[in-house]
Design brief:
Length: 445
């Protein structure tokens, strides 16, 4: 109490305020560290004098870092010295390779996690993750490596009046393809038509369950009626009987023009598509829709008058006789178009199925057209040039695939990655070979 001695009391307070921080008191309880704990002799203390040193012991799952002292000291400012990482997590070691899959690792020390994934066409059997955990006085992974099993499919559906060709052992896995065909019938009996895609393949859904790529086709008898067009004639498809996908091409007599499509096709339900055209008499100032197979006309109308213009554009994989994709013509009169309408011709844009030993092609077909994409997947124990399991290429036409198709190489523990310079040269060589060239490129190191 400072009653009556105010001057002395104020002076004392000023002296205390000017004293060094360490002279006023001690350090409190030492900090709690995630990798170490105070030794027992220091755990019950809450007040430590300046200069006191406390010792720590590494927690379970951690081990002492050589050369680092596991201590902290109460310094003059009544604060504990900055803790160094004198204990480090123990290592669980590499878990090993996952056959037909990958192990994703960011760290191998205590407390870290790793995840597993399977290559395309395989699914995980086991745990998706594993943690480095305490095991007695050491550490270990919480789960063993899972398995990556080939995704299986049930046998493909049977169809009436038909059969499929596939694995003779009825063992179907991701990438397996089956092709359906219709049963043959005795001569004089209506034959069956295959309605739908002839081939389906085993793929997977979002849950990695094996499923077939689509519904199987049907085999059924299809009949379309014989049709005639008044004031017109058949130019192809003379019949008289018609079945699935049969086509008829019509033309009109002189002084008549065609209203509708000049080609109709027999559909699976026994009808003709598009609608059966008609031939109408040509007024002097009218032009009918010009025949233009494998292309589209804009604007599309059944008839045009003198001066009307239309643009004719070929469908994908087709070009006009002069190589252009489209042309514009105008109606002069009396069903005359100027310039004369050209026809759409198929571009030589076919690619045969590439050679791909020790691997599978999906979808599998004998022939592809420009723009078609396929996925090539190496079989077990085989990888592509840079270690990948699969690649996707597209048909560029004239038997050229982009990027060039690689080959499947057998994996081995001692195998090394191909140097980037050699990989580039090999890729260029494959491209040249796919273009029909035989120029050799040196491999530079």
């Amino acid at each position: 109490c400072c009653f009556g001695r105010a001057g002395l009391c104020v002076s004392a307070l000023l002296v205390l305020a000017l004293l060094p921080r360490g002279a006023l008191g001690n350090c409190g309880a030492p900090p709690r560290l995630s990798f170490a704990e105070l030794r027992d002799e220091f755990k019950t203390q809450t007040n430590f004098t300046v200069g006191t040193t406390v010792r720590y012991s590494c927690r379970s799952g951690y081990q002492k870092v050589p050369g680092e002292s596991p201590t902290l000291t109460c310094e003059n400012e009544s604060v504990w010295s900055e803790p160094k990482e004198f204990c480090r997590g123990k290592s669980c070691g590499h878990p090993g390779d996952l056959v037909n899959g990958k192990v994703h690792i960011t760290d191998l020390l205590f407390g870290s996690s790793i995840t597993f994934s399977c290559d395309e066409g395989f699914r995980l059997v086991g745990q998706k993750t594993s943690q480095c955990v305490i095991d007695g006085t050491g550490v270990t992974w919480s789960h063993e490596l899972p398995l990556c099993e080939k995704i299986p499919c049930l046998p493909p559906p049977e169809i009436d009046n038909g059969k499929y060709l596939g694995d003779p052992n009825s063992h179907y896995t991701y990438g397996s393809t089956v092709t359906y065909s219709c049963n043959t019938v005795p001569r004089g009996t209506d034959s069956f038509s295959l309605i739908g895609e002839a081939s389906i393949h085993c793929t997977s859904d979002e849950e990695q369950n094996g499923v077939w790529s689509g519904e199987p086709p049907e085999c059924k008898v299809v009949k379309c009626s014989n049709v005639e067009v008044k004031n017109g004639r058949k130019q192809s498809g003379f019949g008289p009987s018609y079945t699935y996908k049969d086509a008829i091409t019509f033309g009109c007599d002189a002084d008549y023009f065609l209203v509708g499509s000049n080609v109709i096709i027999c559909q699976a339900n026994g009808s003709w598509t598009p609608a059966i055209p008609t031939c109408e008499e040509i007024p002097p100032s009218v032009c009918g829709t010009p025949p233009f197979s494998n292309g589209k006309i804009f604007p599309s109308k059944p008839r045009y008058v003198t001066g009307d213009r239309i643009t004719l554009t070929c469908e994908a994989n087709y070009v006009l006789s002069d190589g252009a994709k489209s042309m514009t013509v105008h109606c002069k009169e009396n069903n005359v178009w100027d310039p004369p309408v050209q026809t759409c011709q198929l571009i030589p844009s076919v690619c045969s199925a590439p050679a791909f030993p020790n691997g599978k092609i999906l979808p599998s077909k004998p022939q592809y057209v420009t723009g078609d994409g396929i996925t090539l997947t190496c079989e077990e124990n085989y990888v592509l040039l840079h270690g990948e399991k699969s690649m996707t290429v597209h048909c560029e036409g004239n038997n050229v695939w982009d990027p060039p198709v690689q080959t499947c190489l057998r994996k081995s523990r001692e195998s090394c990655l191909v140097p980037a310079s050699e990989a580039h040269a090999l890729t260029q060589m494959l491209l040249l070979q796919s273009l029909g060239m035989r120029k050799r490129l040196p491999l530079t190191r």
